[in-house]
Design a protein that fits this description.
- With 280 residues, this protein is mainly alpha-helical.
- The chain has one domain.
- Helices cover 71% and strands 3% of the residues.
- It is built from ten helices and two strands, in the order αααααααββααα.
- Strands 1-2 form a two-stranded antiparallel sheet.
- α1 runs antiparallel to α7, α3 runs parallel beside α5 and α9 packs antiparallel against α10.
- The N and C termini lie far apart (45 Å).
């Protein structure tokens, strides 16, 4: 199959999965976020393992999933914030277990076991806090008395896709000036400005539908997404280049893996959430 059509078909399924999962119901919202978190964290461990360092994948994934589940329960006001303290024995046990390992570089293993908790787990664990106890865009299915709105997440992904599309079209049409050639040779300044322009336009058109913040607020969010998302893509490219791999995975034909597809999300969403929390 032609690469363009394969990429387009896969992209359509990604859109359906993301919009459908996050928009349908609070339960599907949480499952969709958990799939993205687990996929990106697992691929990080796989990339690092290719360099000869063996992080504790099972313990790290259990910790990541635990952080996400606790975040969901705290965001939904089912558990108190102090429930995060239950992570302390889990993290401590992971460090103790390394004493019984025969690896030559145990601290590199621990470093790469825990780093994705910051890199991928925390960004996706903020998703429940962006949806529960918020008013705005309603889910497609009723959810009882729970206060819940997927508006921030839906708006975020629409803007990030607008940015990606604008950057791609401007890059292939006008791209001449390399943005950071040593890390990502294909990215150009023309593509960057095409992406930010498309994202601002979509924010202006759909801001009233998203709710939460004003039109000016959503335009500011679109700028944050474009700038931070570009850095997110460059950071993941730096990770792959340092490990000597082309793609983080192959689960999405034409798009690579979870990290390849959501690298801009994990850097830009925490900043978007911070902005909306302060000014929303």
């Amino acid at each position: 199959m032609n690469n363009f059509f394969r990429r387009t078909l896969t992209g359509a399924w990604i859109v359906i999965f993301i919009l459908g999962g996050f928009w349908l119901h609070p339960i599907s919202f949480l499952i969709t976020g958990l799939v993205l978190l687990t996929g990106t964290q697992y691929e990080y461990y796989k990339i690092i393992a290719s360099t000869g360092v063996n992080p504790r994948k099972t313990a790290g994934l259990i910790a990541g999933i635990s952080v996400y589940i606790l975040s969901a329960l705290v965001a939904a006001a089912i558990l108190p914030v102090k429930s995060f303290l239950f992570l302390i024995p889990l993290i401590t046990l992971t460090m103790i277990l390394e004493l019984y390992s025969t690896q030559d570089r145990p601290f590199e293993s621990l470093a790469h076991t825990f780093f994705p908790l910051i890199y991928t787990v925390i960004p996706f664990s903020l998703f429940p806090f962006a949806a529960f106890s918020r008013h705005g865009l309603e889910s497609l299915l009723p959810h009882g008395e729970i206060i819940f709105s997927p508006g921030i997440i839906i708006g975020f992904f629409l803007l990030i896709w607008a940015n990606d599309t604008g950057a791609y079209l401007a890059g292939i049409s006008f791209g001449r000036t390399r943005l950071m050639e040593r890390v990502s040779p294909k990215k150009t300044w023309e593509g960057f400005f095409g992406g930010i322009s498309a994202s601002i336009l979509v924010a202006w058109l759909l801001s009233h539908w998203f709710g939460v913040v004003s039109t000016a607020g959503w335009i500011a969010v679109s700028v944050i997404i474009s700038v931070a998302g570009t850095y997110g893509d460059l950071i993941e490219s730096m990770l792959k280049r340092s490990a000597g791999v082309k793609d983080s995975g192959s689960i999405m034909p034409g798009h690579g893996g979870f990290l390849d597809r959501f690298d801009s999300t994990i850097i830009s969403f925490p900043l978007v959430y911070l902005f909306i929390s302060l000014f929303g």
